[in-house]
Sequence to fold (811 residues):
Amino acid sequence: MAFSTTAKVRSDVPKELPGDEPDDVLFNSVYGVRTIELNRPKKLNSLNGSMVRKILPRLREWEKSQLANVILITGAGTKAFCAGGDVAELARQNATKEGQKKSTDYFELEYQLDHLIATYSKPYVAIMDGITMGGGVGLSVHAPFRIATEKTVFAMPETTIGFFPDVGGSFFLPRLDGEVGTYLALTSERLHGVQALYAGIATHYIDSSVLAPLTTRLSELVFHDYSTLDERLTLVNSTIAEFTSSLPSPDSYEAGKNGNLSGSLREAIDGSFKYNKIEEIVSAVEKEASSSDERIAAWAKSTLKTFGIRSPTSLKVTLEQLRLGKRWNISETFVREHQIAAHFMAHPDFTEGVTARLINKPATAPKWQPGSLAAVSVEEVNRFFEKKAGVEEMPLLEPIDSQSSLHGYKDYPWARFALPRESDINQVVKEVGDKGKTAVVKEILSRWNHKLGVKEKTEDVLARKTRELGSGIKWVESDSKLDLPQYGSENRFNTMSLSHDDLFGHAAFDESDGDEGYDSEAAEISKASRAAESQRARKRRRLSGSDSEGDDSEPEEEVKKAGEQISHQPNTLRGAVDKTAQEEGKQEAERRVSGTGKGKGDKKKKKARRPGVVYLSSIPPHLRPSALRNLLEQRGFGPITRLFLTPITKDAAKKGTSTSKARRSYAEGWVEFASHKTAKLCAQTLNATPIGGKKGSYYRDDLWNMKYLRGMGWEELMDGVRGEKREEEARRDEERRQIQREAKIFLEGVEEGKRVEGMREKRKQKGQATRDDGRQRTFRQVEAHVGTGTRTAESETGVDDEARQVLSKIF
Fold:
């Protein structure tokens, strides 16, 4: 049976059951931080259904809350974050069909939680302080931030117990560098401490002694209401980086001799585990056992021994799972893994492996069925990837509005917070490799903000994957995984002004959410512009190639085309503008053909050429930045280097001006031209003239309103814009605080009213009368007698007699 193309969803969130343990998960709030603490230290915080049913609804509740900024998950005790799922209970109940269904339902619940974490719309930080295996991997590895400490021990030991690396292993393992994921899945190799960082499992490494201060620091973070997810993640990333002081050597772990996946060991892993059949992998490792390198030979012998005690069925299913998982998106991964888990619950190897390894004391050697790789047929392996009869396709939790775009990604949108991957390094080598190894390392360090560990990993990759070519370096080994998105590229890192949809590729490049406006420096390059740039590069290569061959006919044709390029464009102004543009085009083409342009005269021209800025006091409604650029450049005013447009404010929107994303309007803007002469000529020529265009076009009758800003630099202009933005943010913050104060006073009044009402109810229950019990009371006022101030003789006598009696007793 085939899987549906669209994952099913469920709107209800699983809730606790009456028999669940009360305190196996602890929740807490520290200002904007919401903490989850797995509280089963005696069982190494192993995950069970009771814990999942507590965490799921709380995560969904926090996702909708405006007060919850950052989610942080930890494990109680000093030994483990989470050592996996409670598989012993699953193995005991698999003896019956009903028990197998119950086990499958547990995996459905667990995978729904893992999928929610993988698509969570708020910053999620996992502290992998201690053993992190199995179910603990699902709670951490899909998070944007995964912090390793000196206590971290990471592994995927599922093949040891006759299972497969689930909890999203089909997704994250194939996306690790080279064949690292295949190696970790088939051998269950353990990574210690900083080794998890270099392998790509963790995004940061800090000492466990600063975890408490880190939590406090994260609780102090304040996000603007209009901040995008990318901006929030970037702020959290820089905050965590503050607590990283130094990195230990990956060879410093006595128990993790084979966990340093670099150098010659990494070459042996990539060379041996690249095959699609487990028998071929075993054969390749056997060849490495005779290596002259003692370390590699010892590693190969240890790996062969590991293969000998693993479940043959698990090994073959796992390898097929990893090869297929390269093409699955994040939602499809968990749906398919649920079906694979259902097949394993009915397979004897799972129960046998758990019983022999975990339940029996002491542990015994499991008896696998079948007992050899040759006995496991292709048909039997393929059945694990079909829908199991009687098992419904797993529904995923229904996404909230801000989360829906995350459900279909095929690579982690936040991969850039970890160390650069080999695909990222390869991209930089293509860009600046001709300048040498030092330039490549420097460029990568700059893009990753000098993150600790970047230099060491980059140097290791360059040593294995590149060779010197003249004064530069060249990538010499192709990698099947280089088609993954390049998160180290420049346009991927300049995302501070991008909207949530821009981050995940769902919005036009010249539109943005919020009130930041449009900044051409932060906008991503469109496919059309990349294609045009590629076309120009091909033309330049043809020009340079024909020049070296001595053929003058082709360059002359290119010169002619370059000179006529602007004059043939529609809607151009005749006269001096076209003539100037043509002359500049001819001169540029001639310089490219002749190979000159570096003489003294050119240096003087280059020095004299400075940019100029034009101010647009008004912009036609709904005019896109890309359309504005085209309108100016088509008239010969170019090239345009930068644009900045300010959007219509919310106050103006209340008066009737639309600010919706589909039809965004801008109030004013600034355009920077490569030449100040072009900018000045543009303002003089176009100011107060109709925009024009074809008859019936949208902007035909609107007028240009522009002015050349003499002596104004772009940086000076942006400083002013940023200053105004800071003032606006300060004003909004003050308004927000005022609203919060008023709301607080109102809520205090409501609470006081509830308290008084509660007191009245208690009095009623006790039978005491209250002022509002319906009885009518009358009050008589005491009469006040106003006299003249004289006393009667009787009163005076009475007072005098009393005084005499008192005085007589004293004296």
Remarks:
- The chain has a mean pLDDT of 79.
- The CA atoms of residues 370 and 376 lie 7 Å apart.
- The chain is about 45% helix and 10% strand.
